[in-house]
Amino acid sequence: MQDSDDADDICQRMQRVRGEVKDDVQDIMQSAKKLTDWRYHVKNHPWAFLGAAVAAGFLLVPRRKTPLTAGAQELAALLKKNNIPLGNVSASKKGLVATALATATPVLARMAMTLATRKLHEHSHRWAGEEAGHPAERINIPR
């Protein structure tokens, strides 16, 4: 009797261990999925990811090159030295009004085209007799 009780006890313990191992493996798989999911980390550590994005942007974006600074007289002397004719090099400076007009002109042109298109569309329906109904319908003449 003793052997069968020991064997049954061992079988029950092994069955319990198998169930525990199965649960442990599933827990490990879920935690591994969670650790490899970037959305989980972003949700739980947003500031760290923001810092990492800023650092990556700082390292990846090339630095602004410093422009060469040379005075107008040095450039004129260099042009004369190399026999390059000095044309009209005065930079045109636009005023605030000219800049505003240059910015607003395309917007205003687009608005005018949209309005003209709508009006033309309305008039085409009127000319086709669609707005007030067909003339035959207004006079009650069967078609």
Which features would summarize this protein structure in a list?
143 residues, mainly alpha, 6 helices, 73% helix, single chain
Your description of this structure?
The longest helix is centred in the first third of the chain and has 35 residues, at 2-36. The protein is mainly alpha-helical and 143 residues long. The protein has 2 domains: 1-61, no CATH class; 94-143. It has 6 helices and no strands. It is elongated.
Q: What's the gist of this structure?
A:
The chain has 143 residues and is mainly α. The chain has helices spanning 2-36, 38-44, 46-60, 72-81, 96-127, 135-139. Helix 2 crosses helix 3 (46-60).
Determine the N-to-C terminus distance: 107 Å
The succession of helices and strands, N to C, reads HHHHHH
The radius of gyration over CA amounts to 41 Å
Category from helices, strands and their pairing: mainly alpha
Strand and helix map with partners:
Layout: H1 2-36, H2 38-44, H3 46-60, H4 72-81, H5 96-127, H6 135-139
